[in-house]
Design goal:
By secondary structure, this protein is mostly helical. It has helices at residues 2-9, 12-38, 42-57, 60-70, 80-106, 111-117, 122-152, 164-174, 180-212. Helix 1 crosses helix 9. The termini are far apart.
Length: 213
């Protein structure tokens, strides 16, 4: 049992790299997406709406195959780990853009107009007034999505990423189809989500304290 547990731990770094990389990529790419989505210009709004709708409507494993077997087999030279981060990052961008949009909708109305009346530019208004409040409102939803993303990265094993699920599958096959490796993998994923919950709670408390200061 100890040997099995140590074997699954070998997949933790890859699991964390895919999860963290995809979340960071999505968090950054989601910003221009939500700004385009909120734009009054149809030339910007419609492509963002189309991207978000299409990406969210197709299972992540399909995007994984498209990036790895499509782009990675001809246009770009990608490792399975790189392809997983990019594919899951593109998916994350669509979901996080909608989380950001929900944060904007949750803000009291008129703040943008008030900032404009004070002579602030739209960029300054977004940077100093709207964005910090959107971040605070969005933290719980972002943390929930991060936990979901951690679980969704299990599909990365289908293209050869040596994550927790890959090692669990290998151990199950070598053990004659035993389900014990998958039970341990499930417990390991639960343990990995605990720091996310703690960190999100602390971030939420800190942001609330700053907003009340």
């Amino acid at each position: 049992m100890i040997e099995l547990g140590l074997s699954l731990l070998r997949g933790v770094p890859a699991t964390l790299i895919v999860t963290g990389g995809a979340f960071l990529l999505g968090a950054l790419a989601g910003v221009p997406l939500v700004l385009m989505r909120r734009s009054h210009l149809r030339l910007l709004q419609y492509p963002a709406r189309f991207y978000i709708a299409v990406v969210r409507g197709i299972p992540p494993i399909v995007w994984l195959f498209v990036i790895f077997f499509g782009l990675g087999s001809g246009i770009l030279v990608l490792t399975s780990l790189q392809a997983a981060v990019i594919a899951m990052g593109l998916v994350s961008a669509a979901y996080l853009a909608e989380i950001y949009r929900g944060g904007f909708l949750a803000l009291p109305g008129g703040q943008g107009e008030a900032a404009k009346a004070l002579g602030m530019s739209r960029l300054d208004s977004l940077r100093y007034i709207l964005a910090p409040q959107v971040l605070r409102v969005s933290v719980p939803a972002m943390a929930t999505f991060l936990v979901s993303l951690l679980k969704d990265t299990t599909v990365a094993s289908t293209i050869g990423v040596r994550d927790v699920m890959m090692y669990a599958s290998q151990k199950a096959q070598s053990g004659g189809g035993s389900f014990t490796p998958f039970i341990l993998a499930a417990l390991l994923y639960i343990l990995l989500t605990i720091p996310v919950a703690v960190l999100s709670r602390r971030m939420d408390e800190r942001l609330r304290t700053r907003s009340q200061a």
